[in-house]
């Protein structure tokens, strides 16, 4: 049997990351399971370049920098992090829960903190029948590494900030970059749109991708159709990167064997962040209670609450809660 964790945190958004750090401070054996290939939740997936102005202690911080700081903070403790690991089932009871992930990994934990936000994210996929045949070969939804597109002809589909950022990031690396959007106006911030217009990226608007086919040389033949018009074009590219945003869905949680009560897909919690299943707490955007705010700052406040009260139940002999200075001194003596 694998090691039994004290706490398993499900969801590696900002709130789950802070909870993992805090659990480390409490000397808990902790694992953090995240469905996406990267940590940071909505902050990293939806608005990495946005400035956030309502994090205590930071007059302003870029979203992606906040995630990096949280990752640094977590690194101080031996936290087991598993990415691309959506939790598909939780069974058992307080002291002995079994957690199963989409890739079949099974782990055991005494208690659980659910920090799943509005659910597991998935990229919004291209609505072309045979798109799945090209995924991972010529069609991508993330940029795993810029080098992969070196000297290639690439088309980025999408009109928001992250699509524009992708096109601008690829410009110095790729042979040729196109960006295609279904409207003439981009949704990105004015400054990003100005940079795009001043770049060598060729803009194709208002177009939609209608069909995909592979050329004999293994490239992608894109058929594009003008939106509300009759124009049609074809373009041969090495890679198509689709950036149509993400969809979040909590339905996987509804299939868990243990099922804490929910209202409108959000976990009902008390003032200590307990759900109605002993040993399972929930924090961040995934909870509801009177006065709940869907803000990072609120989730950061809920995390120590959940960790401390679970640790108090698991280890009633330990004092709780302590101030961080005392906790770090205790860690140093270990
Ligand atoms: C455009 C935009 C701008 C915003 N601006 C601000 C702002 O300026 N200030 C502010 O305070 N808030 C802002 N917010 C809200 C803020 O982003 C959220 O409050 C915050 O992200 C909540 O964090 P979280 O960790 O609870 O959830 P999330 O960030 O949603 O993270 C949850 C994580 O859990 C993972 N997950 C879900 N299901 C599973 C599963 N079954 N197994 C494993 N992992 C799973 C998801 O993949 C995700 O990574 C903004 C939100 C948006 C969309």
From TrEMBL:
The keyword Transferase does not apply. Residues 5-309 form the FAD/NAD(P)-binding domain. The keyword NADP applies. Its EC number is 1.18.1.2. Binds 1 FAD per subunit. Keywords: FAD, Flavoprotein, Membrane, NADP, Oxidoreductase, Transmembrane, Transmembrane helix. One of its GO terms (molecular function) is flavin adenine dinucleotide binding. FAD binds at residues 34, 42, 47, 87, 121, 285, 325. It catalyses: 2 reduced [2Fe-2S]-[ferredoxin] + NADP(+) + H(+) = 2 oxidized [2Fe-2S]-[ferredoxin] + NADPH. The chain crosses the membrane at residues 7-25. InterPro entries: FAD/NAD-bd_sf, FAD/NAD-binding_dom, Fd--NADP_Rdtase_type_2, Ferredoxin-NADP_redctase_2. Its cofactor is FAD. Belongs to the ferredoxin--NADP reductase type 2 family. HAMAP family: FENR2. Homodimer. This is Ferredoxin--NADP reductase.
